[in-house]
Amino acid sequence: MRRTSAYRVFAIFYSFAILALLYHHLIHLLHSPNTLSFFILLADVLFSFLWASSQGFHMCPTDRRVFIEHLEHYVKESDYPGLDVLICTADPHKEPPMGVVNTALSMMAYDYPTEKLSVYVSDDGGSKLTLFAFMEAARFATHWLPFCRKNKVVERCPEAYFESNPSSWFPETDQIKLMYETMKIKVESVVEKGTIPHDHITNEQEKQAVSRWTDEFTQANHPAVVQVLLEGSKDRDITGHTMPNLVYVSREKRPGSPHHFKAGALNVLIRVSATMTNAPVVLTLDSDMHSNDPQTPLRALCYLLDPDMDPNLGFVQFPQAFHGINKNDIYAGECIHVYQIHPIGMDGLAGPFHVGTGCFFRREVFSGVPSRTPGLSSDHLVSKSIGNKEVLASAHHVAAWNYENQTNWGTKIGYRYGSLCEDYFTGYRLHCEGWKSIFCNPKRPAFLGRAPINLNVCLSQSKRWGVGLLEVGFFKHSPIVFGLMEIGPLMGLCYANYAFRPLWSIPITIYAFLPQLALLKGVSIFPKVSEPRFFLYIFLFVGAYTQDCLDFLLSGATIQRWWSTQRVWMMRGVSSFAFSLVEYLLKCIGISQFGFNVTSKVVDKEQSKRYKQGIFEFGVSSPLFLPLTTAAIMNLVSFLWGMVLIFKKKNLEGMLLQMLLAGFVIVNCWPIYEAMVLRTDRGRMPTRTTIISIFLAWALYIIVSVSPKI
């Protein structure tokens, strides 16, 4: 990209400014040692390390485009490789089955040869409610797929299509919508009641499938279930056209046996799909990430089949995009850095991270190191019917709870175990093994999902990611720092920037509290306006924020969304990243064990209304809110007290940076003040949280007041 040279020049100047600041800190600490100076130095050292690690994203940003109209010159449609789509869900009450059904239907309706397309759904909750939803989906698909094909519908997700402008509908749309609404009402009624009425089971095959859920069948203790719902070699749609395969999978679970959360579920899907169809291309998806472009597989093939591409190309990563984001994206749900800016920066190196969903893999990447054999073939396809008893027996066998014992699954094969961020860890290990990746970012988003509309859910999700990232950074068998030797310094910096991302909590927390506590005590800790170091601080702050803002604007985002992102970043630093760092340390010493919590996809109508209005959602007494409200109170009180000191001592010059810092935090904390004092709706800050935060702020002030020397 043209901006590369500017990035590199700025990095040089900024590096010198950082070195100058750290030098002054060190000299000051040696001449006047005190606790506050030490912590400020620590904060700036960590800021410097994390900034330096982020420069890997700016050294070689690359933008790519594909031209799918040229694909036919390289391969005929009949020679397209098989495609296995793997979708994971875990809880029908947190991830409503109709959402998963919409995702699967949008994949089944791809512009891709149906005889080469298979969709596998992993139900890690082992729920017959999810199975019933997909039984209904299989019936609806026989009408939906020909409807999309006949009318060349672009939006292949039924829910999204029926929410679109009716002026673009076709004559038979009302009829197909009625069928969809009937299915939706039936499925949601079954999920709400928790049981399947007998009259909803229409044939013997469905009866046998549901009969496996006996009294002994529980979420944590049940046999493997592999149910073929649609078989391409047998089933036809209403026009007589072949259907893609649709397979429901629920792996075996036994009490006390490790199941490795989502990574374990994906590995089971990889094995089951290998025994049934064994397509050379595998697409992994989250349950709520539906297709937004029916030609997405063709875009991936433009890279995977290009004879000029690196034969070690292992996966093509598409960005996550979200629908329903409010105007200013108040929770930074778009994650522009993760899904847009940073992948573009890594694409000029060995390729982007794997971000968990929307990724097309060569199946062979899950088997070990690159074979250096270019191209893809259809030779992988299994010739036997997927409904064959022998094939089904093999599928159940590889879904057994003890199948992975004494094997390399999770270490050298499949998704890697050892981190709650299985996607990040797996991508890291694949890059270390020599595989490359490509970032494909078409103008029309390939996939659309749903971002959290609740601050507590957003912070909880970040906390889980933080623990997972630290598990990778300090992984006992191969710490991230050793990856510098395997994937090169710039790629190593990129991975390190994410692996140690929770460490941001330390400098952010220090700057959110210590200067303000010093201000309450009337102590000036930053240089005066007349000192050169004052302008050094201004340059470092303004320079970093300006570069980040420009990155956002150049990616197509608005300045309002950039402001929301930097505010949420500070919230995460004080709250979720700090909690994840503590929980990881407690886990390391054996005090606690962190589990995998499924992010709820259920949408509350009142919360949704407030979210659309751009109003923050608090509402619950979450520990994650305590450091936020404490910091908000501390900065407001210290700012007001600083104003008093300025008028009394006329010492504006000595207190200016501390006042500016407190004022900056106050501006970012406005939604918190509003939730504590001005709001009366159910999303306001709980009174209990506010009272506890006041006591915490007061306790911090008392500690500083009785300290003889800060």
From TrEMBL:
Q: Where does Mn(2+) bind?
A: 262, 286
Catalytic residues at 124, 423
Where does the record say this protein resides?
Golgi apparatus membrane
The record's annotation in InterPro entries points to: Cellulose_synth, Nucleotide-diphossugar_trans
GO CC terms in record: Golgi membrane
Pfam families cross-referenced by the UniProt entry: Cellulose_synt (PF03552)
Q: Which molecular function terms from Gene Ontology are attached?
A: cellulose synthase (UDP-forming) activity
Membrane topology field: Multi-pass membrane protein
Q: Could you tell me the keywords of this UniProt record?
A: Cell wall biogenesis/degradation, Glycosyltransferase, Golgi apparatus, Membrane, Transferase, Transmembrane, Transmembrane helix
Listed binding positions for UDP-alpha-D-glucose are 94-95, 124
Give the record's family classification. Belongs to the glycosyltransferase 2 family. Plant cellulose synthase-like G subfamily.
Q: What does the function comment of this entry state? A: Thought to be a Golgi-localized beta-glycan synthase that polymerize the backbones of noncellulosic polysaccharides (hemicelluloses) of plant cell wall.
Q: Which protein is depicted?
A: Cellulose synthase-like protein G3
Question: What species is given as this protein's source?
Answer: Vitis rotundifolia
